[in-house]
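Open question from group meeting: does this chain pack into something compact, or does most of it stay loose? Before anyone orders reagents, we agreed to write out a predicted structure and look at it together. Recording both the input and the output here so the notebook holds the full record.
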Amino acid sequence: KAPLTIATSLSKQQVPLGEPVVLTAIVQNGTDGDVANPLIRIGLPAGLTAQPWQLQKLKDEGEVAAFETLGRDVVLYLDGLRGKASITLKLDLLAEIPGTTTGPASSAYPYYSDDEKSWAAELAIEVLGGSVGPALPPPSPSPIKITPGTR
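Structure tokens returned:
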């Protein structure tokens, strides 16, 4: 019975360390009536970070009314979404920590009706790269000799 639906995807399933990956979120109003104050909560896989300048740009250009980051979630607030309308949001995420991770599920709902949530599956990514550094030389024998009975 949720009035909104949400779908999320990543432009790549693998990304090199330090490179961007695009997250696309599509929110659709499935009703004929307007939905006031939709809230979009996008779960990010660990190792990927949203760019604060881009979130601010979305706000400055009127795409979103407000935003906040909460742990691994980016929360976007809209002023409203007309009946049968949809909005597509693209976020450039930066791959900062190597590894394979899955993020929290994303959701969309009217701000005052969090019991009418729509969910999108968790997103998974593999961030490639990282280095263990050069091989360490083998340990050399200890120059300290311990003789029993001495201090």
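Observations to bring back to the group:
The first strand starts at residue 4 and ends at 10.
The two ends are 79 Å apart (CA to CA).
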